[in-house]
Amino acid sequence: MRSRIHSKGEGILPQMLRQYRRVRFLPAIFVACCFALFAPHVVAQQPQRSSTPGTAAASGTPAAESGNLGREEQIELARRQGKAETAVLDWVLANSGPLTGDARLTEMRIVFAITPAEGWWDKAGGNKLAWHDAPDGNVHLRIFVADARDGRLLPGLTVHAALIDANGNQQSVPVDFGWYPLINAYGANVPIDTDSRYTLRVTVDPLPPEHRSFFAGDRFGHPAIVEFLPVEIAQEAVSQLPLATATAYFKEAELLKPCNAALSAAITALWTESISGIEKPDGDYFVGYAIDYSVGGSIGRVKNLIKFSGKEDVHLEVVPRDSRSGRIIPGLKVQASLTAADGKHYEAGELPFVWHPWLNRYEHGIRVPRKGLYRLHVHFEAPGYRRWGQQSERFASASDVEFENVSLKPEKD
Question: Is the pLDDT of residue 317 over 60?
């Protein structure tokens, strides 16, 4: 489908891995290879954290765009994730019927698919979800937005859509982010009163600065508008197509394996370059964290002292994932705090979800007065968006996870 485009502006590893617990620098590739060889064949994979803290630079200058990874390593981590997610998106395009479109912009790839109306799960209180049947006389519109550079999907956007019929009548469509089997999208059921040739116009607002990593610069900082060529939408014909959510669900185990492997490699890299980090299961969630020194700060190796930057002293990153599919869960209000041995609490507040050059995550700075061991508490409520399809009965409850003995002390050289 051509388009007219206007761009404005805790699992267990084998004994052989445990024998490396005293190694100063355990390469990320070793951890990833051991995981790939010995992890069970499930959809969601849990990366394994080396017990050795990362190799944070002794000066305040990062080795590359972020953290301690070299630029080529960062690019490769993002490329692997993007390649896997692009394969899933291409599969969706090829298996959603005739009403699809694909547009390539400078910074974004925008894709749509129109399929039969879908039912959904919604929060109902009391740690329960309520099911809503698909409405009659509707079709389902999904819009996918991906990074044109590396192919990774872009969550956290505000997307607007409008359908314009052959007579010029315009219908606004409130496409909100939703959770779907296999691949998430911005989507909605759309009432179709008249069979007609419809033009779809999609507008993507700039990604707010608080959701862009410092290293992103002004990427995704401008709105984009895509107007696809008209497609014939006939309600009866669309209703005869398979439900997109059911079709996608049965492909999760196959198609998400490369996605999980790529994401596991990125999380392993995050842990390897951090002071402390691990992941725990919690019901429908895997909750992982990593702590490192703020980019603006510096680290004194002598006597393991933290030299304060005058701003935030350490940087906390949280990666919540779906325990079934392994995918990162966006759209949460993640709260976190550290508790010292003397019982004093240090709040990180709400961690915004941030697009990052090689691993999207929730992150925020937090000031602590001294080195040592802390207890980390991470909390988030169940997401407020819709879970589309019968198979998406997930995330009814909040998550409260505590991590004991979180180290804020670099190991001695």
Answer: yes
Please give the helix or strand (H or E) that residue 106 lies within, else none. Answer: none
List, for residues 72-126, the tens digit of each pLDDT value.
999 999 999 999 999 999 999 999 999 999 999 989 999 999 999 999 999 998 9
Q: Which of 213, 232, 252 is the last residue of a domain?
A: 252
**Secondary structure element (H or E) that encloses residue 85, with its range:** helix 71-94
How many angstroms separate the CA atoms of 367 and 318, rounded?
Answer: 16
Is residue 306 domain-shared with residue 403, that is, in the same domain? yes
Name the residue among 71, 73, 82, 88 with its Cα closest to residue 32. Answer: 73
Q: Which residues sit opposite 366 in a β-bridge?
A: 314
Total domains present in the chain: 2
CB hemisphere CA count around 10 (13 angstroms): 10
Q: How many helical (H) and strand (E) elements, i.e. helices and strands, does the chain have?
A: 6, 25
Find where tokens 């954290």 sit. Answer: 49
Domain around 66:
10-72+256-407
pTM of the prediction? 0.81
In the 8-state DSSP scheme, what is residue 221? -
What whole-number distance in Å separates Cα of residue 179 and Cα of residue 387?
5
Q: Would the CA dihedral through 215, 217, 223, 227 be positive or negative?
A: negative
CA distance 170 to 161: 10
